[in-house]
Amino acid sequence: MKLFYKPGACSLAPHIVACEAGVALDLVSVDLAAKTLPDGEDYFAVNPNGYVPALDIGDGPVLTEASVVVQYLADRNPSSGLMPPAGDPARYRVQQWLAFISTELHKSFSPLFKPGTPEETKTASRALLDKRLGFVDAALADRTYLTGETFTAADAYAFTVLRWAAPMKIDLSGFPAVMRFMAAAGARPGVRQALTEEGIAA
Ligand SMILES: N[C@@H](CCC(=O)N[C@@H](CS)C(=O)NCC(=O)O)C(=O)O
After folding, report:
1. Which of 3, 67, 99, 123 is 20 to 30 A from residue 13's alpha carbon, by CA?
2. CA angle 117, 123, 127 (to 5 degrees)
3. What class of enzyme is it (predicted)?
4. Are strands 2-5 and 26-29 parallel, antiparallel or unpaired?
């Protein structure tokens, strides 16, 4: 399987899941500004939306959407615990977090990265993130990871997105449980492996 990625972007989430699950990936870096691949090919031919992640599973069009790609990879190795089985209420708890991370966190960070975003929009995004971080902090108060003591696909996605707080100058010190989560997730061998392979390990 080929993962189209950019170092540190949301494509890090499926990369972490693959490392945690022991699923082998071929990594293909995408120049998101030029929308090209290392061989000069047009990335729009891979993903017409032009964004990462995209996963070539060798069967039809690439899979896209970080919250779905992580589930596909986690399900390659059910014993990893990254995604509980269909029908288990625990699976829908993880999916609830995946949807929350995608729509409430990821998409609130996005305007902060975009050149030309009006200051007013950035201020609104920061205010919303502050509220949502409070929610995540409260959820993590009595547990290591989002749904308990088991690291799941949702944790991989949350870790990926919350890493953006530092470059966006969002201070996490008021969210101690989030800081503990980042330290615990960041110390996992699978997470270290993905960061190292993307050339962004601290
Ligand atoms: N809806 C997509 C959005 C993915 C996304 O925002 N990707 C960013 C990197 S984190 C990207 O590739 N941006 C470049 C672009 O949209 O041109 C998902 O949930 O996976």
Report:
1. 123
2. 135
3. transferase
4. parallel
What's the gap between Cα 114 and its chain centre?
Answer: 18
- The domains found in the chain, sorted by start residue, are 2-81+191-197 (3.40.30.10), 89-188 (1.20.1050.10)
Separation CA 4–CA 153 (nearest Å): 18
Percent of the chain at pLDDT exceeding 90? 99
Q: What is the predicted pLDDT for the residue at 182?
A: 98
Query: Of ligand 1's atoms, which has the minimum distance to the CA of residue 53?
Result: 20
Contact yes or no for 147/95 (Cβ under 8 A): no
Task: Express each pLDDT in 78-97 by its tens digit.
Answer: 999 999 999 999 999 999 99
Give distance in angstroms: CA of 88 to centre of ligand 1. Answer: 30
The answer on pLDDT for 120 being more than 90 is yes
Give Cβ neighbours of residue 128 (< 8 Å, ≥ 6 apart): 104, 108
CA distance 46 to 39: 13
Ligand 1 centre distance from Cα of residue 10 (Å): 7
Dump pLDDT digits (tens) for 156-191: 999 999 999 999 999 999 999 999 999 999 999 999
Distance between Cα 142 and ligand 1 center (Å): 32
Task: Indicate the pairing of strand 54-56 with strand 2-5.
Answer: antiparallel
